[in-house]
TrEMBL record:
Domain of life: Bacteria
Signal peptide span: none
Annotated transmembrane regions: none
Descriptive protein name: Macro domain-containing protein
Pfam families: Macro (PF01661)
Natural source organism: Mycolicibacterium confluentis
Length: 169
């Protein structure tokens, strides 16, 4: 069973084998975590994402799936891009959010990554309520974390940190 740790801060300052990106299906960048990762990781990440679009994902990466690229200049070996669901009041998309965590860990395991850093997927631009996003993240990682040694959640602010602390306890 992996150790689960919580950190408050900027995910691009972390060192780990793999850093998970809250991407969109274009894989070509955006705001939030995605923007920060591409800015700090440099152009090698975008170049590899473009190749992934030309080869394996011509229509984009589907919601709930995950794929790895180089981590460029980040203190990591890989960035694992995953696409969270947009929050919906009328439709329960929790299974897709859980799938992001599970698929990212599966990819990490295949790569041989032992430390994996996650942001709170979907809780920014995609509007998922933080408390519920934290609960799904912790529950899913607890059941699938046997493939890695450490899972670290990096929460941008105190509100996110407290939500994950509550979900963990
Ligand atoms: N480090 C850690 N957490 C961060 C950082 C950071 N540097 N920046 C934001 N957060 P978001 P999403 C927090 O919007 O909701 C992009 O445009 C943020 O406060 O990054 O999955 C993509 O291209 C929030 O709690 O991801 C997609 O189009 C959490 O990270 C879309 O946004 C996730 O916020 C994905 O939206």
């Amino acid at each position: 069973m992996a150790t689960i740790r919580l950190v408050q801060g900027d995910i691009t300052s972390e060192s780990a084998d793999a850093i998970v990106n809250a991407a969109n299906s274009s894989l070509l960048g955006g705001g939030g975590v995605d923007g920060a990762i591409h800015r700090r990781g440099g152009p090698a990440i975008l170049a590899e994402c473009r190749r992934l679009r030309e080869t394996d994902y011509p229509a984009g990466l589907p919601t709930g799936q995950a794929v790895a690229s180089t981590a460029g200049d980040l203190n990591a070996r890989w960035v694992i891009h995953t696409v969270g669901p947009v929050w919906s009041q009328s439709e329960d998309r929790s299974a897709l959010l859980a799938s992001c965590y599970r698929e990212s860990l599966r990819v990490a395991g295949e790569l041989g990554a032992s430390t994996v850093v996650f942001p709170a997927i979907s809780t920014g631009v995609y509007g998922w309520p933080m408390d519920d996003g934290a609960r799904i993240a912790i529950e899913t990682v607890r059941s699938f974390a046997h493939v890695v040694e450490e899972v670290r959640f990096v929460l941008f602010d105190a509100h996110g940190y407290r939500a994950f602390e509550t979900a963990l306890s």
